[in-house]
């Protein structure tokens, strides 16, 4: 009985250790690389923050789909084009990685702004209010 508990504990440890790894097939990029990417008009710009956050300020020409919305994947599928890459961001980079994983698993080519909109603003990049 004790061996089974020990094995279960070890399995739980390793599963939690590896569950924090990046999921999905997408690339996280720096502010400079993101800026270069979105200069291409073929790249779709996606803000995955809340409507309130987006309303305060955002990267110009980006659309807003809240990744915390239960229907995020469905809204994204009906709004985005799969044949064009998606460059997405959130406030700090955490939610965007979740969104990037969802979209990349659905077949989109995805680029994630690694440290998010806060880093974008800190770098003095263009924003729209």
From TrEMBL:
Residues 39-129 form the Rhodanese domain. Gene3D superfamilies: Rhodanese-like domain. It comes from the Bacteria. It holds the Pfam family Rhodanese. SMART domains: RHOD. This is Rhodanese domain-containing protein. It comes from Bacteroides cellulosilyticus CL02T12C19. The lineage of its organism: Bacteria, Pseudomonadati, Bacteroidota, Bacteroidia, Bacteroidales.
């Amino acid at each position: 009985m004790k061996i089974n508990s020990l094995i279960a504990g070890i399995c739980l440890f390793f599963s939690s250790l590896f569950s924090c790894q990046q999921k999905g097939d997408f690339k996280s990029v720096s502010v400079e690389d993101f800026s270069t990417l979105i200069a291409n008009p073929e790249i779709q710009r996606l803000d995955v923050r809340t409507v309130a956050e987006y309303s305060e300020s955002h990267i110009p020409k980006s659309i807003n789909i809240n990744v915390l919305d239960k229907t995020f994947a469905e809204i994204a599928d009906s709004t985005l084009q799969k044949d064009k890459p998606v460059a997405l961001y959130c406030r700090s980079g955490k939610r965007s990685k979740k969104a990037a994983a969802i979209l990349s698993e659905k077949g989109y080519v995805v680029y994630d702004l690694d440290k998010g909109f806060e880093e974008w603003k800190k770098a003095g990049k263009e924003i729209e209010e």
